[in-house]
Amino acid sequence: MGRIAVVVNAGSRSGDLPGLAERITAAFAAHQAAPSMVIVRGGDVRDAANRALQQGASAVVAGGGDGTVSTVASVLAGTPVPLGILPLGTLNHFAKDLHIPQDLDAAVQTIAAGHAIKVDVGDVNGRCFINTASLGVYARLVWEREQQQLSGRGKWRALAVAAVRVLRSYRRIHVIVNNGEQSRVVRTPFVFVGNNEYELEGSDVGRRPRLTGGRLQVCIAPEMNRIELVRLVAGAFTGRLRGADHFEAMSATECSIRTRSWRQGVTLDGELLVLRMPLLFRTRPGMLHVLVPAA
User: How confident is the model at residue 126 (pLDDT cuts 50, 70, 90)?
Assistant: First the structure.
């Protein structure tokens, strides 16, 4: 594998960070590997990944949840350097969709084996995402939660307070969605754009059967009421997606979205950004190398 760099987000685990670092080092040592490792806070993940790339790392490993993995992936996309994943977050959607083990030792074994595949990423106005981009009520909820955490509330209490505030002032946004084949003008509580297509029914709802389809999935829900929205939002944060039967989905390789505002809050894999209109989405097939189980 050559020179492996590991970037661990301290915010992904509130427990014994020194102990975690020792476990990671020992797991790699079992495979005769001695990676360089840094433990940083969320805002420093991108800089740490960039430094690893500039210093000639042969693989860069993201230790954290989907937000951490997405940040490192955005640095590596378009380069031949593969992404390794240590799933240390709450949900780990990207790792699960690629069948990467959730157990730390097994995840390290996957990285040490060195089997890489090319997967797609999504892009909006030049910004990369690996799971979903969203606007509307979910983006507002992320903003409110961050404000509550800044005021000193813990993660889950901040989420509860934010959910009450957002749903109390629930309103739809007016959007124009154009995928090149059809144009929709709707009022919807949200728009989700997925990197490849998610299952919207059955036992695998919320999962992607593949990340190599070269497609985007655009989901809206103009008929969803407030109670159904509460269920959906709760599912989005706990990994138990419900209410997908109310979705209207379209598939595309690229699409544009406009709202009545000249700028819009958008979450990319849980990270909140403010982007200018229009939002131009496209798929970038095979732009990211990821270390996955050979099977």
Answer: very high
For 237-259, what is each residue's pLDDT tens digit?
555 555 555 778 889 999 999 99
Crossing angle between the packed helical segments 155-168 and 137-150, to the nearest 10 degrees: 130
Residue 117, phi then psi, degrees to nearest 5:
-125, 160
Structural domains in the chain, CATH included, are 4-114 (3.40.50.10330), 128-285 (2.60.200.40)
3-state secondary structure the chain: CCCEEEEEEHHHCCCCHHHHHHHHHHHHHCCCCCCEEEEECHHHHHHHHHHHHHCCCCEEEEEECHHHHHHHHHHHCCCCCCEEEEECCCCCHHHHHCCCCCCHHHHHHHHHHCCEEEEEEEEECCEEECCEEEEEHHHHHHHHHHHHHHCCCCHHHHHHHHHHHHHHCCCCEEEEEECCCCEEEEEECEEEEEECCCCCCCCCCCCCCCCCCCCEEEEECCCCCHHHHHHHHHHHHHCCCCCHHHCEEEEECEEEEEECCCEEEEEECCEEEEEECCEEEEEEEEEEEEECCCC
Q: Which residue has the higher pLDDT, 151 or 112?
A: 112
